[in-house]
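Purpose: get a first structural picture of the assembly so the mutagenesis plan has something to point at.
Setup: two entries, given in the order below. No constraints added.
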Amino acid sequence: MRKISYEQAASEALLEEFRRDEKTIHLSTDVPPDLRKEFGEARIRQTPISESSFVGAAIGLAGSGFRPVVNIRMATFGFVAMDQFVNQAAKITYMFGGQARFPIVYRMTVGASKSFAAQHSISPYSMYMNVPGLKIILPATPYDIKGLMKTAIRDNNPVICFEHMALEAMEGEVPEDEYTIPFGQAVIRREGTDVTVVALAKMVHEALAIAEEMKLEGISLEVIDPCTLIPLDRETIKASVAKTGRLVVVDEACITCGAAAEFTALVVEEEQIFRRLKSSPKRVCGLDIPIPYSPPMEQYALPSREKIKAAVREAMT
Amino acid sequence: MKSRMENKREDLVHLYQVMLTIRRFEERVVIDYRSGAIPGIVHSYIGQEAVATGVCTNLRLDDRIVSNHRGHGHCIAKGADLNRMMAEIYGRKTGYCKGKGGSMHIADFSIGMLGANGIVAAGLPIAAGAALAAQLEGGDRVVVLFFGDGATNEGEFHEVLNLASIWKLPLIFACENNLYSVNTPVQYATGLEHVSERATGGYGIPGVIVDGNDVVAVYEATKKTVAEVRAGGGPVFLEFMTYRWRGHFEAPGIPDLRPAEELEAWKGKCPIAGLERILLENGIVSRQTLEEINVQVMQRIENAVSYAVESPFPAPEDALEGVFSS
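Result (C-alpha cells, whole complex):
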C-alpha cells in the first residue's frame, strides 16, 4: 500500500470532503494552497489573527447551514478563544434545546519536543474533555487522521481534532480508496497478555517501540490507542485490563487531572475489573511544569521510553 | 396618496403593538419573577422597546439576528412565539429550549433568531459567521447584531468590527447604548460620548446615532440601513441612545446606583407613550383603538403565562438528552 505523511493524509481528507459537500468552508490564518487553488478564496478564507472572532464565526456559519473547518494551528492559540469554545460551541446545541446543529471541526496541534517552549507546547485535551458538548479526536497515524477527519467533517457537532506536532511528517499506509473511521472505537495496536498500555497521540508509537524490548524481558504488552477521547471507547480498555490485570497509561499531558486519570478511574471504579487487578494502575505522564525550552529540560518534562519501561516493570512486580 | 397613508397607519399601529407586547411581556415576567414563579435571573428590556421593534420590523423572516442577555424584546420583535418564550422562562418542557436555556438563551432558528447570549460580546463573532453565511449564500439577507455599550470594551467587539469591515459583511451592528454597563457609566468605561466613534474612526464602518426611544426614528434609520446593506454596501453601525428602566437584572445582589432623577427623566421619554401621542394627536387611531390593542396584548400575555404554567416541567433525566446532535 502507498505511504503518505500524517499531514498529507489530513490534507487529502479535507480535499475529499470539500469536493463532497459544497457547504464546507475553511477558516485559518494561513491558507492551505491546495484547497485555495481548487475551491477559491471565498470558501478557503484567510482570517486575521483574531481567534475569538473566527472560532465564533464558525458557530454562526454552522448555525446558518455551513460546515466550517477551522485551523487554529497551535493549541496554545486556542486559549485566546476559550469563551467561544467553552461557553458557546460546546453548550449551544444543548442550551438551545437541539433546535439547530453545529457541525464544526477545529484543528489544533498539541505536544512538545521541538523546543518551542511553554507558549507553543501543550497537550490540553483533558481541559476540553471536562466541557460536555465537544467531541475530541486524537489521531496518532496517517491512516487515522484521514479517516477520523472525514468523519469529523460529516459529524453534526463541534469536533476538536488534536494533532501532535511531532507526527506531521510521520509516514504510514493510507489506502487510495475512500474510507471513514467511526468515533468511539479504540484500536488495539498490539495484542498482549501481561500489561495493558493505554497511550495517547505520539505516545502510542513510544509504547509500541518498547513493546519489543519488553518482550525480550518476557513481558507481553497490549497497546491500546483510544483514537477518540470524546466519545471514549471505555469497553475496549476495560476488557483489556480485565484480561491482563495491569494498566499503564502513557500521556504527555501534565499528570494532574489528565486523561490518564480518567482511564485509571475507569478500571478502579468498576468492581469487576478492580478485583482482577494484579497491581495498582500506573501513570506515565508529563510533569506538572510548563514545557521548558532547553532540550535536556524539555525531554525531562515528557514521558520517556525508560520511564514507560520502568512503569511496566513496576506493574509486573 | 391614500393608500400610502393607509400603509403608514398600519406600520405605526404595528410598531405600537410590538412595543406594547414587549412591555407587557416584560412587566409580567418581572411580577412572576418576584412571586417566585420564574427561577434564575431575568434582564428586563423595559424602556428599550423601540430599538428591537424599530429594527426588526424592517427585517424579513430569512434575515437573521443575534441577541444578548437582554434578549426578550429582540425575540418578540423578530416574531417569536410568546407561549414558547414564556414556557422557557418558566423552565418548562414546552419552552423554546425544552427548559435547558431559560431567559438568557432563547433562540428560534426557524425565524432567524440565532440566540440570546449570557456572555457579553460573545454573540458578536457568531453574528459575523451568520453574516458570512449570508454573503456566501449569495442572496440579499442581512444579519442584525444586538449588543449594549458594555460590549464595546470587549476584545471580540473590535475583532468583529475588523472582520465585518475587511470582508464587507452584510452585518448591521445595532448597539443599544443605554448609558450603563450594569452601574458603570459609558463615558467612564469608554471615554467617549458615543461608542459608534469606535466603528467609524477605527474601522471605517459608517455609523449613525439614533434616538433609540423614538420608534419612528429607529424604524426609518434601520430601513435606510437595511436597504444599503442588502445592496452590498457592507456593514453599518447604528447606535441607539436609550435607557433601561429597571436594574441590570431582576435579582437581589447588585443595587441600582443610577441617579433617580436620570431614570425619571428617561421615563418621561417613554417610547410607547411617545408613539401614543403621535397616533392620537394626528388622529391616526382613537384612544379606544389603543385600548383594544392593549386588551388584545394583555390577552396574549395571559395566554402565554397559562401555557407556561400548564406545561410540565422536564423530567430530571431529560437533562441527559441533547448534549450532542445526531
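Confidence is low (pLDDT under 50) at residues 1-5 of chain B.
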